[in-house]
Amino acid sequence: xxxxxxxxxxxxxxxxxxxxxxxxxxxxxxxxxxxxxxxxxxxxxxxxxxxxxxxxxxxxxxxxxxxxxxxxxxxxxxxxxxxxxxxxxxxxxxxxxxxxxxxxxxxxxxxxxxxxxxxxxxxxxxxxxxxxxxxxxxxxxxxxxxxxxxxxxxxxxxxxxxxxxxxxxxxxxxxxxxxxxxxxxxxxxxxxxxxxxxxxxxxxxxxxxxxxxxxxxxxxxxxxxxxxxxxxxxxxxxxxxxxxxxxxxxxxxxxxxxxxxxxxxxxxxxxxxxxxxxxxxxxxxxxxxxxxxxxxxxxxxxxxxxxxxxxxxxxxxxxxxxxxxxxxx
Length: 329
Ligand SMILES: [Mn+2]
Prior knowledge:
Elements: H1 3-9, E1 15-19, H2 26-41, E2 45-50, H3 57-65, E3 70-72, E4 84-88, E5 103-109, E6 121-124, H4 131-142, H5 148-161, H6 171-180, H7 186-194, H8 202-211, E7 213-215, E8 218-225, H9 229-240, E9 247-254, E10 257-264, H10 271-279, E11 284-287, E12 291-297, H11 306-328
Parallel strand pairs: 1-2, 1-4, 2-3, 4-5, 5-6, 8-9
Antiparallel strand pairs: 7-8, 9-10, 10-12, 11-12
Helix pairs in contact: 2-4, 2-5, 4-5, 4-6, 5-6, 5-7, 8-9, 10-11
Bound molecules: manganese (II) ion.
Residues 27-28, 89, 110, 130-131, 161 line the site of manganese (II) ion.
């Protein structure tokens, strides 16, 4: 019995929900789209849904060009408590996914598990670079033809999650990339990959470049007020590409606190641990060795109190530098 049959066997409804993590990225959306077509092949219809916003230009463009139907949970009518939900690129109980109405019966993901959850079926492979590769493998395993739009979406998702085949790449990712490159629209994949920055997003880069402070090889940069979360992360990737920077902390001042994105390329440091320790007691932080995030809420003041925010940023910087010095020993 192949994996798709095991999945189908656990579904009892005619229509299921495929839920991605909040603020879905190309990997999450292409995985959901690929799974939707597979289920369709088995006579099961599905609704792809998410919480939050899709605020990257290239992600929106992928959805439009490939004709992907995806719904914000806020625009869907009330969901039945008995609804069947398949989670993709996320796991139950994680901070990046809301608990929607219905039962999470199946989970397909490539993130490490932090909280144990029970599903009727799960395929969780943290060693794989993109969830899109797992979904792609179901097609070849079960000999179901993959259409061009699905291949294009999956290849784009795979490329984004593996930083163009340079980050966390597993043999499965390479295998799927190679196999799908014959099926997908390569010109469109290139175009989606080239057009990743929207004119409006340039201000976040400009703000970060103008505000950057570098201490040895650790940098702090501010993307400006109310910067969307995926963009803070992309700017942090960009800052890390500087030769002089090997540990990057990029932040944005949001309505109720400071949102941070951390990137690390020093093998002796762990970005997740450092963010966790540095922000403990004043906020929260955590993540992987190479990428992490955090949030520090305002304590009794608002986004307009420039002076208090300036002081809070000084505290955050000091805490990061102290924590890095502590772990570098
Ligand atoms: Mn992913």
